[in-house]
Specification:
This protein has 377 residues and is α/β, with parallel strands linked by helices. Helix 6 links the parallel strand 3 and strand 4.
Length: 377
Amino acid sequence: MAALIHRPEYAGYDFGPEHPFSPARLEMLLDLFRSLGHEVAPIAAPAATREDILSVHDEAYVAMVEALDQGKPNLEADRFGLGTPDNPIFPGMDLATRWLVGGILHGARMLMTGKERRVLQLGGGLHHAQKDQAAGFCLYNDLAVAIQAFVAHGWRVAYLDIDLHHGDGVQNLFYENDRVLTLSIHESGHYLYPGTGHIQDLGSGSARGLSVNIPLEPFTEAGDYLEAFESVVPRALSWFSPDVLVVQAGADAHFADPLGDLALTTQAFQTLYQRIFALADAHAHGRVLLTLGGGYEAQVVARVWTILYLTFMGLPLPEHLPAVWMDHWRHLLGPGTGRELHDPASAMPDLPGREARTRRNRDVVNRLLDSVRTYWI
């Protein structure tokens, strides 16, 4: 019981040819699936309605997006985070984002009706969008809309964010909601956008202890990352007992991503995905809803998200990428890209200071667990 969601209209979420959040990432990904011999027939979900968007976003913000979409100039656009280098205005941006929101919302509804147990949205993951602002390449918060639908259904929701960047928009929207547990493992905000996601940010009121952040040191490698994940995430899920697990599966924690400094390998991502599905089975009735997210190096996102797809579908992983696919996408992959699906050992950079990073990351995890222990009883 596993479903894929995607439709060609997702390509309309396009900030322009120089912007890193490129729709070509999804096009090359789907082409790779087919080149590997997999018949991909994703569900084409309907666009979210305006009312769906207003379940988490302010009316004034949505009205501003709509007005700018229609070409109406407004000097207050930047007050809403729009018209900036991160979030440039483009024609059709309201509907383009509502297609993405509609996809994950359709997946949520399939889970709520029991039609599916696992759903993967091939797109989306707009976790930085705030209640009243665009932020970090994100216009509407698709993840938050889906989570809000689950909450309205009466479910307890665990949200897990493995993107390089802190899932600040989702955390902020549910910071006082005791039906939602947010877990984000990311590069520390002391070094990286959006500058948030610290261990002391634990939630508010009856939701105290339900916002959980694992900020890691720059250049954290797979061993430390997975150790931190295992120290916190399983026990948080066991304590919270969610009805569903929602996952933002950004690929930008890979060592070759240009926008940050974590140092995961493709092998680490495979382990991480296997653990996520096992944890969903153990603690969330097998229900898991995933989106993609960040990831800005073409050859990395193609390989990492292919590993996600194949793990999601229970399919074997090939050793090599198809030559015909590589030739077709050479302009994005670069001339030095090898054919291996997994990172060769020679590709991993030598990162000095490993012992000191390990000590600092363990200290962060221990201080976090000390802080939440009072609430996880």
